Amino acid sequence: xxxxFMCTANSCRSILSEAMFNHLAPAGFEAVSAGSFPKGQxxxxxxxxxxxAGISTDGLHSKGNDAFASNPPDIVITVCDKAAGETxxxxxxxxxxxxxxxxxxxxxxxxxxxxxxxxxxxxTTIQQRCQAFLELPLARLNRDQLKRELDRIGTL
Length: 156
Known about the structure:
Blueprint: E1 2-7, H1 13-24, E2 30-35, H2 44-52, E3 75-78, E4 96-99, H3 112-134, H4 143-153
Parallel strand pairs: 1-2, 1-3, 3-4
Helix pairs in contact: 1-3, 2-3
């Protein structure tokens, strides 16, 4: 199963989600990420947050959803934060879609400790959601049931 995590810049939330999902996922699962307006580089603090958590950053880079045209995902999960006024990217295609809104920790203003705490908190939320996803009885869920479960997980 291939999961695409999408946000606007593909430099923070979707990158953190891709890395965490792949860190937790068993064989047969793969996460990738993309942005509707990719920044072209991953935020250094995203990478350092992952490294501090013991999660590999190998191969992470900012890209658009056109990078997956030849190998489309089964599921698309948007992680932008509608409450922050962002335009959430839309992926057109047969993939099942869900939204797991996350506030962008790169917008946090304050000292280094406060910013680090925001990134760690975002990564913890992503971890909880990815674990809940991977615990689903996927073989027993039809498409509509899976959509409902993914949407529920997005509220955790």
